[in-house]
Amino acid sequence: MGNSYAGQLRTTRFEEVLHNSIEASLRSSSLVPRPVFSQLYLETEPQLSALEGGSRVDNEDEEEEGEGGLEPNCPPNPYQMHPPPEGCCTMDGFCQAGKDLRLVSISSEPIDVPAGFLLVGAKSPSLPDHLLVCAVDKRFLPDDNGHNALLGFSGNCVGCGKKGFCYFTEFSNHINLKLTTQPKKQKHLKYYLVRNAQGTLTKGPLICWKGSEFRSRQTLASTCSSSLFPPAESSGPLAAFSSEPVPGPTPSIPMGAQPAGPASEHPSLMAAVGPAVLNGRDSPKHHQLAKNDLSAMPRPSALGILSNSGPPKKRHKGWSPESPSAADGGYSQGGGNRAKYESASMSCVPQVGLVGPASVTFPVMASGEPVSVPDNLLKICKAKPVIFKGHGNFPYLCGNLNDVVVSPLLYACYQNSQSISRAYEQYGASTIQPISEETQLLLTVYYLVQLAADQVPLMEDLEQIFLRSWRESHLTEIRQSQQPLPQRCPPAPGAAAPVSSAQLPWLAGLAASSGNNSVHIIECTYSLAEGLSEMFRLLIEGKLAKTNYVVIVRACRSPAIDSCVAVTGKYQARILSESLLTPAEYQKEVNYELVTGKVDSLGAFFSTLCPEGDIDILLDKFHQENQGHIPSSLTASSVTKSASLDVGGAPACTSYSLEPHHIRPFQLAVAQKLLSHVCSIADSSTQNLDLGSFEKVDFLICIPPSEVTYQQTLFRVWHSGVLLELGLEKECVTKQRVEQCVLKLDAEAQTKFKSFLQNSFQNPHTLFVLIHDHAHWDLVSSTVHNLYSQSDPAVGLVDRLLNCREVKEAPNIVTLHVTSFPYALQTQHTLISPYNEIHWPASYSNGVDLYPENKKYFGLSEFIESTLSGHSLPLLRYDSSFEAMVTALGKRFPRLHSAVIRTFVLVQHYAAAMMAVSGLSQMKDYTSVETLEITQNLINSPKQCPCGHGLMVLLRVPCSPLAAVAYERLAHVRARLALEEHFEIILGNPSSGITVGKHFVKQLKMWQKIEDAEWRPQTYLELEGLPCILIFSGMDPHGESLPRSLRYCDLRLINSSCLVRTALEQELGLAAYFVSNEVPLEKGARHEPLESDAEKLSSTDNEDEELVTEGPTSEKRSPVKRERSCSHDSVSSSLSSKASSSALCGESLAQPGPPSQGERARSPQPCGPSEEGRAPGERQRPQASRGPPSVISRHSPGLAPQPDSGLRASQRSVQVSVTPSSSQLSSSGSSSSSVTPAAGTLVLQASQCSMTKACRQPPIVFLPKLVYDMVTATDSSGLPKAASLLPSHSVMWASSFRPLLSKTMTSTEQSLYYRQWTVPRPSHMDYGNRAEGRVDGFHPRRLLLSGPPQIGKTGAYLQFLSILSRMLIRLTEVDVYDEEEININLREESDWHYLQLSDPWPDLELFKKLPFDYVIHDPKYEDASLICSHLQSIKSEDRGTSRKPEELYVRRQTARMRLSKYAAYNTYHHCEQCHQYMGFHPRYQLYESTLHAFAFSYSMLGEEVQLHFIIPKSKEHHFVFSQPGGQLESMRLPLVTDKSHECIKSPTFTPTTGRHEHGLFNLYHAMDGASHLHVLVVKEYEMAIYKKYWPNHIMLVLPSIFNSAGVGAAHFLIKELSYHNLELERNRQEELGIKPQDIWPFIVISDDSCVMWNVVDVDCGGERSREFSWSERNVSLKHIMQHIEASPNITHYALIGMRKWSSKTGSGEVHEPFSRCHVHDFIILNVDLTQNVQYNQNRFMCDDVDFNLRVHSAGLLLCRFNRFSVMKKQIAVGGQRSFHITSKVSDSPVPVVPAQYICAPDSKHTFLAAPAQLLLEKFLQHRSHRFFPLSLKNRSHPVLSVDCYLNLGPQISVCYVSSRPHSRNISCSDFMFSGLLLYLCDSFVGASFLKKFHFLKGATLCVICQDRNSLRQTVVRLELEDEWQFRLRDEFQTANAKEDRPLFFLTGRHI
């Protein structure tokens, strides 16, 4: 319906709400519209009508402009018009019926206008110069106040007479408006049409749409807007305004009074509430010009904030982020800029600076009679007064509104401090009153009175004053707030008794009287209007010339007071009014001034200053004079240089060396911190990042749209080698590949980003790191972008890309924000968790240098430190003579923006300085000492170096148009002075690359040894050593790094009104530097002629001057004197002057001492140490030689390349130049560059390249005075004042009730401070974060890295990518044991070969014929005793020496293997597939499980065994219960005949201890998803921890008596339980008709470290051939198990196993497909066949060898499948290593050695806390030679071991025999044994059995029993004393206390 919004009215006007409700009910499909009164009274935040008034400021104007010059540049909203009906007229200016509607055509025709209708003029975009006449029902038009327009439309066509158009859309089609955006009556119906005296229809007043139009805009802006940069003062929260009383209706101003004719054609700049007042000086044509010109400029994004919330409904055409008006545009500048502040506590609609004359402003809230602003106010006062609304009502202003600025900042400040007491109410202190209005005003006066003449009031200071006052007055109340007493009238803050309103004017006057007239108090009786009128009168009469502030107060009539404060001081008013401009408005204003030629007056003024007329005339004259001849001195240097270059090749300059790229310790430390944060995200239980599922890393670096930053990042990525490291490139990296990794956030970014997202989606196993570098740039919300059509595609780009849903939800994207200024990302709504912030570490902690480096970082704090007393020379300086000139010109040209004035003055200074250095000495008085110093050093530095290296001067000009002006002017002056070859001037613009002249490119290529003919420098770092002025433009630096040759950082033109911490630190960050740390600071300073003492300096100066022969000394000196008188600024300035005077001295002197340390890491190349150690004398001498250079330059016009290089050098270094006179020269130079040409030839004796000094001294920074004061001042905590400013434009303080930042705060504490005390503005991308419903709005995969500028963050995050990649590879790799089988040579080659190599299964009959191989081949038993069999050749050589026990683990060989998809995993693995298997799911409770007891009796234990099963609900189907939830009866077993491909028949048991995290129990992938039964066998005390980590696994819990038992106990119980279960299942299934032998009898016993399984594929050459090839591949355990379980006759095998994998396994081992030998680690056990063979439950070690021998001796088959192998992972924790043998008594850390494991019975030996069996086994392993001395290394005479295998160490061999009847033993008749071991022998061992064996004489016996009694019985029963001799002292026991049941030994000798 042509409405700009629906149902969104948020004003307190009843009528409008009513209209709204009616409208809504008409449209609504439901019958219940929202009640009017709830709409009226439930408003969230009442809006100021001033908002509506002020903010509309010149909308109409702007719209008109928009349709003219600017509109075409805004891409239109995609609005589709309905196609016109066939055959109708579509001509512009005619309706569809073909009738002419143009005002010019029908102005004199009679028009029939129905009653209640008005004629209005509509604007058509296609006919900008015409109005189309329409008749519209006046009910749908606004009244004079902009209110009460009914929503909707009703109109008639005056051409064809068609009536009854109910929709503006329909009507706009009929009259052929041809709109590209949605038709809105507010936008296109512009003017009322009125008949003049002649009866002609003419354009009348503008239609005042402000009410509704602005409201709709408010809602829009609130949801999205981007914030405008409120100056520091603007920190008050929006809430301040919402509590303001709503004003009455705006008084209407007669519109018709506006003159018709030319003036009204001009866009009227009238305020929406005042008559049109044109600023006479700006003619319409200037506007048009400006508009057309500006239209091409890119729009900076900036938005206002509206204090309302509500979804945007329809978009406004052409709303660029900044434009407040629907069509396009900026506010008229004053109004625009300010209106935003007026409206919503300094924030409001998007704004844009205006094109057009300077400001129009609106009162914040008005009442009473209007006050007229005098017409010539600006002309008389030389500045626009800034009026801050204070308390109460503020009158309307009318008249010349361009010349005043009205701001609500003070009002916001008052409101904020009123809310302070609320914070204490939570403590029950409800009676505490806020600070009273009277006190606030009085404190304001006190504050203003104490401000110095050059200080500007800061709202934040005022807030702190109010806070302190309130705290002091209420301190006692706050303390007693536990028992609050109602107080009628609490004491007013800051005073013993409350200040009454009657006393206020008197007290204020008293306070002001001490201020030397700087504050003037005006008291009013009735309203502020009187006071304002009085103030304007006094201003016009010139009576307030010395007054900076006027405080107007009305305090008598009522309890409430009215007040306002006007800033009338020229300096203060100018700074404050400019600080209210957003960056976009600032640029527009400057542009407007340049385009309209307003600055010409400034140029004209400058030309009058020059003694000989215009500077250009002087330049031309100089140029003509010097056309023919080049100054001899310059030529000399250049000639020598060229010779040295051409002839000798590269000149000998040691200072210019390229630094190899290497990672500094700090960067590595930060990279590791980043990695540990990523790991902690992965380790947290939230499972937001599954590192285990990623195989590689990829990345994308997003950077701001700066070409230089882009190239610099490409360069760093290229040289870091990260692409090769991540495997993204194979051999060599191509430029295209690097470009894919770096994204410039410009218009093309979206396409590239989409492909990144697609890539991440297609590669779920790649971890993508999205790095957002320079992350404080562009934090504008994407909703802002949606709002402002597509006028600037870059607005909100970061939010649209990095915060899009795909990035937030992708599980494989981690976002890393990197910035030096993280403050705007540290708000109450931030997405980044405080735990995910990584701050650059401090270099020192408690005086210890944490990361020793050879370079010291020199950042902001070091620069500030250099300004403190005690330092030789300050690095931060300001230029007082420059500031004085700017101030004077500011008064002379009040209409010009100070940025324009400052730029023109500075460029003029540089031009004059160049002329002075070139020999026009009279110009030295027209520049400042500082500028002269810079210029001299710039021009002279290259002469100090044989190669011509010079220094860089950075000239920061934020505003691009001004930078272009500066560039053109300086280039022109340089050309006229013939200095083109001496130094380059480079215009650095973010949007374009670097352009450098051919001559300089040639030099750079020579210095950097570049062969490529096409090479051009693309980054500032590549300008290393080039003497140049870099004019650096762009509103913000975008992270560009500068070379080490940067010597001067001239920031005198930065926007000093932008007092925001980020902005200031960002500018100062340009100078951040690394200095070489090799020379201690003090020494460094001494080496330079930088005495800290001013006298010394001056003496140097004077000496210099005396030496000077040319030029009048007095002239030279005067500037020095002048400067010295200045305040601090010039220690620097005077020094500098002197310094600068010496050409190089300037250079060296100017450096502050401290920094002169060292090296700059800024660019890759470091400087050589060449001049570092020079003595002061030497240094000074060279200095002296500097003079000539400056002289020389005078004749230098046409030099060849070298000179400039020579020039370059001199400057930076200590400027060693030539004759002694040079030094004076330079000294004088800077002050008076009157040096004449003849100073003698240039002798480059000990010349020192400026690069040398570059590494030891940071650059010198020149700042505006305002910024200098801000940076160097400290607050009460000792922190620089700048740090307490509002942190960023896009945030605001949450409350003025906040503590100050403290100097001692770490970065983390600062972050927490900002997170608590700042909130994002509505335009900030984080604004809506908390509204998403989750209190915890942090994004889990988002990190923030912050560190000082230029410190090496890029290198750190690139290194992080490398180590992250290495870690991921490491996570997908494991160390597996990779050892060759042992004792291969002892394997007897039998004549029998297994016939068919490729047989899948063993043939039972053939297999039975295979001999059993007794020898242990498993490499883990390298230290075990060899088992002899009759097969072994007795002469085989000895085995190696044994290892120390602790080396056993460490020294085992491992190989690193990549995990396959069939691996077993530990608890750290999480992936989607096995979430359910593991029982973890964030949305569900942990799996429930139940505990079941299971008892069975076992005769050997002599009692019933009680085991417990923990069975998760999901696994109950594997078990049989007596009833659901009842008694556990058995574990289900399948049938031998079952043939399922999807399940594994054998239950798997894994005994484990100490490996709840590291054990490989996740068999999901190993089993390839197949169904299987897996039981963990754990000790009782570990049950809880295993259950926690493995909630979905079945646990078998061993009885508590086995808590200290070894693995033998677990194996024993697993086997016994399984047999018992087999019996139960046979019984159960027999009832179902199944035969007992059909029940599956196998179980798997697997180690907890089996990680992968392999199969060997054998390819036989031919039938029955032994020639074959084989290859090994990884397979699933399912594949292997199903293959083995399918073996024919499988139930005839007792034990089945497989090889242990080794990379060294050759075809020999695979020769036989099956072996009959020992099996280990992963065995398949037939519990039926082995029913009578038990594991030894007491054993800790070798129990599997012991069991294998028993099984074989029982006549059963052991089969090893050689084509299968198992890989075992090296796990450093748990397992048998978890048993530590310690003393039971003392806590002595001394280790117990194996010899102490046994002792004599009844001795005083220290008992040990370890099981007796473990002590026995360990003792025998390490000390058995004590018992069996004859057996040592005597393989032909082994020890006979009966019924058991115990490890006696590698040097003793054993022979195993079984005493069981019918057992299979080796033939022992040939053996003579050297010993006999009887271990717990049972009744099967008898005397007759032992008599079968033969022993050597002197052989030893060892009998081991449970106690001394059974020991004696055994000796008697076995008749041992017949053949063995015993002595009493041969009895021993393990070193256990009696209660630990030691084992007893008896040893004897064979007789």
Give the low-confidence spans.
1-13, 28-78, 211-366, 482-496, 630-650, 1079-1246, 1433-1449
DSSP E strands, number = 56
Provide the helix percentage: 25-40%
Compute the number of helices. Answer: 63
Shape: elongated
Largest sheet: 12 strands, mixed
Distance between the termini: 122 Å
- What structural category do the secondary elements indicate? alpha/beta
State mean pLDDT (0 to 100 scale).
Answer: 77
Strand content: 15-25%
Q: From the alpha carbons, calculate the radius of gyration and give it in angstroms.
A: 46 Å
Outline the structure in words.
This protein is α/β, with parallel strands linked by helices and 1951 residues long. The protein is 32% helix and 15% strand. It contains 63 helices and 56 strands. Strands 34, 35, 38, 39, 40, 41, 42, 43, 44, 45, 46 and 47 form a twelve-stranded mixed beta sheet that branches. Strand 42 and strand 43 (1668-1675) form a beta hairpin. The longest helix is centred in the last third of the chain and has 24 residues, at 1607-1630. It is elongated. Mean pLDDT is 77; it is low at 1-13, 28-78, 211-366, 482-496, 630-650, 1079-1246 and 1433-1449.
